[in-house]
Amino acid sequence: MKCPFCSHPDTRVADSRLMEERNTVRRRRHCPGCGKRFGTLETVEFKMPSITGHDKKRRPFDRRKLHADLTAAVRKCTGQEQIDEIVRLTEYRLYNSGLRDISSTELADMVLKELLEHNTEAAVRFAALHKRFDSTEHFASWLAQAVKTGSKA
């Protein structure tokens, strides 16, 4: 790493500490050129798949948008901890999928699958906002399947 004070091309790591709550590593560095010390924070950068919407535009995955969508959809029928857990699980599954792109429909299905295991009412609210149902019959058949699946959990 280049020194921020004298631009020496190589600095030494004097100390490293893992900060688990933020998933980062704090490093104390020493510059052999000017003798000054400085700190760096190292974080993991995940390469998430892009989300392809119905308009065929690719957008980066936005954790905050998913969290806001879940919060709006599920309102009082699901606790905040459950929403946070669903967002974390979805993010984990997206990262581990190895996919470069995923459609917004597939993403909604992934979230719905998790919601159905926890709260059928929340899943129905989310589906009403994020799935494109052709007709009321299509929605009714999805709902019947969701209730059947939700009652197993």
From TrEMBL:
Q: Please name the InterPro entries in this protein's record.
A: ATP-cone_dom, NrdR-like_N, RNR_NrdR-like
Q: Which residues form the ATP-cone domain?
A: 49-138
Mind listing the UniProt keywords for this protein, alphabetically?
Answer: ATP-binding, DNA-binding, Metal-binding, Nucleotide-binding, Repressor, Transcription, Transcription regulation, Zinc, Zinc-finger
Q: Name a GO molecular-function annotation.
A: ATP binding
Extract one GO BP annotation from the record: negative regulation of DNA-templated transcription
Q: How is the cofactor bound?
A: Binds 1 zinc ion.
One Pfam family for this entry, by name? Zn_ribbon_NrdR
- Signal peptide boundaries: none
PROSITE patterns per the record? Answer: ATP_CONE
| Cofactor(s) recorded in Swiss-Prot or TrEMBL | Zn(2+)
Which stretches are zinc fingers (unnamed)?
3-34
Q: What does this protein do?
A: Negatively regulates transcription of bacterial ribonucleotide reductase nrd genes and operons by binding to NrdR-boxes.
Family stated for the protein in its record: Belongs to the NrdR family.
**In its UniProt entry, what is this protein called?**
Transcriptional repressor NrdR
